[in-house]
Design brief:
The protein is mainly alpha-helical and 78 residues long. Helices cover 55% and strands 0% of the residues. The chain is globular.
Length: 78
Protein backbone atom coordinates (compact mmCIF):
# COMPACT_ATOMS: atom_id res chain seq x y z
CA UNK A 1 0.00 0.00 0.00
CA UNK A 2 1.34 3.38 -1.01
CA UNK A 3 0.88 6.20 1.50
CA UNK A 4 -0.46 9.42 0.07
CA UNK A 5 -0.49 12.82 1.75
CA UNK A 6 -4.18 12.24 2.55
CA UNK A 7 -3.42 8.85 4.17
CA UNK A 8 -0.72 10.42 6.32
CA UNK A 9 -3.07 13.21 7.43
CA UNK A 10 -5.72 10.65 8.36
CA UNK A 11 -3.23 8.58 10.33
CA UNK A 12 -1.90 11.68 12.10
CA UNK A 13 -5.41 12.70 13.13
CA UNK A 14 -7.34 9.55 13.96
CA UNK A 15 -9.44 10.97 16.75
CA UNK A 16 -11.19 14.24 17.50
CA UNK A 17 -11.02 14.22 21.31
CA UNK A 18 -9.16 17.53 21.48
CA UNK A 19 -11.69 19.24 19.21
CA UNK A 20 -14.69 17.95 21.20
CA UNK A 21 -13.10 19.04 24.49
CA UNK A 22 -12.55 22.52 23.07
CA UNK A 23 -16.13 22.71 21.75
CA UNK A 24 -17.42 21.80 25.22
CA UNK A 25 -15.06 24.18 27.04
CA UNK A 26 -13.42 21.31 28.90
CA UNK A 27 -9.75 20.62 29.54
CA UNK A 28 -7.51 17.62 29.06
CA UNK A 29 -6.88 17.66 32.81
CA UNK A 30 -10.63 17.40 33.45
CA UNK A 31 -10.92 14.43 31.08
CA UNK A 32 -7.88 12.73 32.63
CA UNK A 33 -9.51 12.93 36.06
CA UNK A 34 -12.82 11.61 34.73
CA UNK A 35 -11.30 8.55 33.03
CA UNK A 36 -8.69 7.88 35.71
CA UNK A 37 -5.71 8.34 33.41
CA UNK A 38 -2.74 10.66 33.68
CA UNK A 39 -2.72 14.04 31.99
CA UNK A 40 0.17 12.82 29.80
CA UNK A 41 -1.87 9.89 28.49
CA UNK A 42 -4.82 12.12 27.64
CA UNK A 43 -2.51 14.67 26.01
CA UNK A 44 -1.11 11.87 23.87
CA UNK A 45 -4.66 10.93 22.86
CA UNK A 46 -5.51 14.55 22.07
CA UNK A 47 -2.36 15.06 20.01
CA UNK A 48 -2.83 11.72 18.23
CA UNK A 49 0.51 10.45 19.51
CA UNK A 50 -1.33 7.37 20.78
CA UNK A 51 -4.87 6.09 20.47
CA UNK A 52 -7.20 5.00 23.26
CA UNK A 53 -8.51 1.45 23.30
CA UNK A 54 -12.10 0.89 22.22
CA UNK A 55 -13.06 0.54 25.89
CA UNK A 56 -11.46 3.87 26.81
CA UNK A 57 -12.90 5.56 23.73
CA UNK A 58 -16.35 4.30 24.75
CA UNK A 59 -15.85 5.70 28.25
CA UNK A 60 -14.72 9.05 26.83
CA UNK A 61 -17.78 9.23 24.58
CA UNK A 62 -20.06 8.59 27.55
CA UNK A 63 -18.32 11.20 29.70
CA UNK A 64 -18.46 13.79 26.90
CA UNK A 65 -22.04 12.73 26.09
CA UNK A 66 -21.32 12.28 22.38
CA UNK A 67 -21.77 9.40 19.97
CA UNK A 68 -18.50 7.48 19.77
CA UNK A 69 -18.46 8.13 16.01
CA UNK A 70 -18.06 11.86 16.72
CA UNK A 71 -14.71 11.13 18.32
CA UNK A 72 -13.32 9.41 15.24
CA UNK A 73 -12.18 10.76 11.91
CA UNK A 74 -14.14 9.09 9.14
CA UNK A 75 -12.19 6.87 6.78
CA UNK A 76 -14.84 7.13 4.09
CA UNK A 77 -15.57 10.06 1.82
CA UNK A 78 -19.19 11.15 1.77
Amino acid sequence: MCLTVQNVKEIESMNRIKKILKEQGRTQTWLAEKIGKSYVIVTNYCNNNSQPSIQVLTEISQILDVDIRELLVSTKDN
